[in-house]
Amino acid sequence: MWQQVIVALIVVAALAHFCTKYLPAALRRQIVYVLARRGFDQNKLAKLFNTKSSCGDGCSSCGSCETTPSPSPDAPTSAPLKRVIMLHVQR
Questions:
Q1: What is the mean pLDDT of residues 47-54?
Q2: CA 35, 41, 45, 51 torsion: positive or negative?
Q3: Closest CA to 33 of 62, 74, 72
Q4: Which of 4, 36, 38, 55 could cross-link 42 (Cys pair, CB 3.0–4.6 Å)?
Q5: Whole-number Å distance between alpha carbons of 66 and 51
Q6: 85, burial (CB in 10 Å: exposed 0-12, middle 13-18, buried 19+)
Q7: 45 contact partners, CB below 8 Å, separation of at least 6
Q8: How far apart are CA 85 and CA 74, in angstroms?
Q9: Between 30 and 64, residue with greater pLDDT
Q10: pLDDT confidence of residue 50
Q11: Tens digit of pLDDT for each residue in 55-89?
C-alpha cells in the first residue's frame, strides 16, 4: 500500500518537473491560466512555470492590451527620423 503511494508521488513530481521545464511556453501559460481560474495563486504558478503573471487576462502586466496606439510610420512627427549607417573601412 505505502509503496503505491510513494510511487504515485514520485510520478506526480516527475510530471510536474516535466511540465515546468520542457513544455512550450504557450502551453505553460495556458496551464497557469486554467489553474488560476480554478482558484490557485496565479503569481506562484507563474513563477513555478517560468511565465509572466496575468498574461492574457487583460490586466496589462504582459503589455498585450496597451491602450496607447503606437505611432504609425506615415504620421508626421516633429523631428524627422535620421538613420545613420556607420561604415568602418578596413584596408
A1: 74
A2: positive
A3: 62
A4: 36
A5: 19
A6: exposed
A7: 31, 32, 35, 36
A8: 22
A9: 30
A10: 81
A11: 455 554 555 555 555 555 555 556 667 888 888 88
